[in-house]
Prior knowledge:
The structure holds three protein chains of three kinds. By secondary structure, chain A is of the alpha/beta class. Chain A folds into two domains: 9-235, Rossmann fold; 252-328, no CATH class. Chain A has helices at residues 58-65, 88-97, 115-125, 131-144, 163-175, 193-210, 221-227, 245-250, 255-263; strands spanning 9-18, 32-42, 47-51, 73-78, 81-82, 98-101, 181-185, 213-218, 230-235, 238-244, 313-314, 320-321. In chain A, helix 6 links the parallel strand 7 and strand 8. Chain A is globular. Chain B has one domain: 3-Layer(aba) Sandwich (Rossmann fold), CATH 3.40.50. Chain B has helices spanning 46-53, 80-86, 108-119, 125-139, 155-167, 185-202, 213-219, 237-242, 247-253, and strands at residues 2-15, 18-31, 35-39, 61-70, 73-74, 91-94, 173-177, 205-210, 222-227, 230-236, 302-306, 309-312. In chain B, a hairpin with a 2-residue loop joins strand 1 (2-15) and strand 2 (18-31). Chain B is globular, with a radius of gyration of 21 Å. Chain B starts with a strand and ends in a 14-residue tail after the last strand. The relative contact order of chain B is 0.14. Chain C is mainly α. Chain C has a single domain (2-293), classed as MetI-like (MetI-like fold). Chain C is 75% helix and 0% strand. Chain C has helices at residues 2-25, 27-45, 48-52, 87-123, 125-140, 143-154, 159-186, 189-197, 201-238, 248-257, 265-293. Chains in contact: A-B, A-C, B-C. The A-B interface holds A 53-54, 162-165, 192-198, 200-201, 219-223, 225-227, 246, 249, 259-270, 273, 279 and B 41-42, 184-186, 188-190, 192, 211-215, 217-218, 237, 241, 251-253, 255-260, 262, 264-268, 271.
Amino acid sequence: MNQHQQPVLRLENxxxxxxxxxxxxxxxxxxxxxxxxxxLEIADGEILGLVGESGSGKTTCGRLIVKLEEPQEGAIFLDxxxxxxxxxxRLREYRRKVxxxxxxxxxxxxxxxxxxxxxxEPLTIHRIGDRKQxxxxxxNALRDVGLSPPERFIFRYPHQLxxxxxxxxxxxxxxxxxxxxxxxxxxxxxxDASYSAQIYNILLAMRDxxxxxILFITHNLAAARYLCDRIAVIYRGSxxxxxxxxxxIERPKHPYTQALIDALPKFGMGEERSRFNSLMLTExxxxxxxxxxxxxxxxxxxxxxxxxxxxxxxxxxxxxxxxFYAASFGRGGDDAGAKENVQCPM
Amino acid sequence: xxxxxxxxxxxxxxxxxxxxxAVEQVSFSLDKGRSLGFVGESxxxxxxxxxxxxxxxxxxxxxxxxxxxxxxxxxxxKSEEEMRRLRWKEMAMIFQAAxxxxxxxxxxxxxxxxxxLTHYPETDKRAALDRxxxxxxxxxxxxxxxxxYPHQYSGGMKQRAVIAMxxxxxxxxxxxxxPTTALDVxxxxxxxxxxxxxxxxxxxxxxxxxHDISVVAEVCDDIGIMYAGQLVEVGAKExxxxxxxxxxxxxxxxxxxxxxxxxxxxxxxxxxPSLIDPPAGCRFCDRCPGAQSTCSLHFPCWVDVSxxxxxxxxxxxxxSASQGRG
Amino acid sequence: xxxxxxxxxxxxxAHFREGWSVFIxxxxxxxxxxxxxxxxxxxxxxxxxxLIDPMYNPMAGVDPQVYSSVxxxxxxxxxxxxxxxxxxxxxxxGARVAFMVGVSAAFMSIFLGTAVGMVAxxxxxxxxxxLMRLADVVMVMPTLLVVIILASLFGQLSIWTIVLIxxxxxxxxxxxxxxxxxxxxxxxxxxxxxxxxxxxxLRIIFRHIMPNVLPLSxxxxxxxxxxxxxxxxxxxxxxxxxxxxxxxxxxLQWVWKTGHMFKAPYWLLPPGLCISLITLSFYxxxxxxxxxxxxxxxxxxxxx
Lengths: 346, 326, 304
């Protein structure tokens, strides 16, 4: 990967807070920090996995990138250009370049529109080509996602297709504009295993053929391992670890990542699995307002972790971890005091 | 000792579009203290099977043939009143999205106690609450949360409460239908571990239904693969995983991404057949890479691969057992 | 493209056929449609009697041989009113007026209500608040009373003015329902998908929200028809109707005004019965359609 090339998408210290209002103004519930100063980069043609559990903020991150919501702090850059405050034709240009695949294939297609209408709608909005050309593009898009012959599908309606087929239509719709970045928000969490496998392969094919960058949001580490070049692990609104996929799976540095790997069912996925045991059996009390987000559950938390939250620090050219004692964790090692500079293999 | 034995069970639904054969000729047995997992994709009939075992099918569903032997008694010969007395005391079920089964306006301890008092009316409230406390300790819930309402619990805690409710009357068999699907990975792992240890301690049988093979593999001793309403392969977990025989099982295993190596995933081409008008022969034949001309004509037969592993496929003769496939 | 429009038409037809089979199974649907067909035939036939003989004209046709209200006979199947006009032809003309008033008033109020509901639901915040408060104000006003006041100020109102007024007072009910439906649709991922694709707000409203909201509008139209017919009848009965139009309410007013309430059942009963039956049939139609059209009542297929 060419490191000096500008990343196609960059998030810089992005924060998003949700405030729930109450009728009695005085009793406003505490604001929820969905994303807390998150910084990410996606290189051209890269598939970056964003792995986290529910409530981690991964979906919010995706929504901010496609401008369904706006961040309260920080900035997002596409090809070096900031995207906050875009209006009119510049906003439309942005929308042409950044698309999204939604989680629920049963709800992300308008039930009243035929497949042809759904797929060619982005082309109509951006006034690309005439009717004949749009139809041709739609047919090609369907062929690309494996729905062949496409003529069999264009006049059908979503309720006549299975979940897997609907999700492929959603991918076709996202790709028909030939975008630069596609955010895939848990595209397979509502599909069966065999259909999920098809979707993963289609996404890989899309990347290889059209050189599109993909942000793959998921809670499934194994799927991220299969699909992604790099994986970012997010917990409670902050990134805990970013590293190449193989590195995250085989040598996780952050205790949370280690807990995720431990929790994955073993049988059928290889017997050799070292147990990191980084999770406490019962949670401890939160030490202070500004302590590490994982403090309550971390089995290796030290005194410093209870006082301040670690920032995402580099542990090598491609690895970053948000933990004071990350360098000393490998295969369940003991603490070694201060952070050391450990080289991350490429 | 055989706890549950099912022979040739078939279940049909009367739907607006026709008569749907949801489960066809399923036979299996479960010994006391063992766990059996049913794996399959949506529409394969595993949930229907679970409901049929408890005779809790919706009004348009019917068991058309077969026998269900539970503890030596034929469940299909029992009246509704007898089944009602049997449910929860002898067999308990954890439904899909069970955390929504908790009534939001009652305290958790009251709901569990109600289950106990309904089936053992001679118990007094004090004794019932003591039993609830014991159950809380068993499933790993803090006792000081007994008096809380369900909305104060997290997803994982609600699931544990539902498991406690299922265990409340000391059933001999628990049928769990996707009990951990809506939960996060870490919580799911903790609950599965806990379930395994409780089962070892109390010795009940479990039937575990899931679409996730890896989850079933973690908890169960035996595993059964279902496709389009039929049981296509069943056997001891180790054997089925090490040497799957049925083409669907092989395909299913290879469509799950693993952590170990980055091998390519092989999706299964085609779609599941319609259950309203199922194909005559093997239901998997038009998606099967090794299908032969006879497969679509004749119903496949059961082939014993070993003592505790059998597969329903005409193309898998015992002779090929030594060679192995996949 | 020709193929495309053919397929789209087929889609509507197929949908309609599917809905129809569910609808007609419902006993309410069967009775409702049956009665409406009967009234429809009556309305269509209302043109026939004056063509046979000008004596049968509901407004102006007077039987020269009759000087007061008489009961049913071979010449006048339902009898005549106090002026000698044939009651049956009045009844048939009344059916026509009922349909006209009912359907047009309902259509106008649905049109207004749907537009307001969609805009309010989609815009949210300030616009939503303003529109809904306006709807509240209008909804709270007693329709009948206001119309009576207006009539007493401006004299007799024409039938179309009445229709407009009814439409004006009845739109808030629909708008609340459409607004609720729009709010729930707004959350659906396909709206997000349209926004991500770059659709403007107007496009989202007309292409994505409206088609999904129209079935509900259509459903509520049937309920609006019943209230429109009832209001018109009430107005006519109280003497505020259009004197140039024969409607069932007007017939009832004549019965009452001329003191024939208890003396001429053949004159009193038919219009009263017709008003009740037509409102009942539209209501039954609406209830049967609810099962087909209301997305909230539709059951999803459970997983097996």
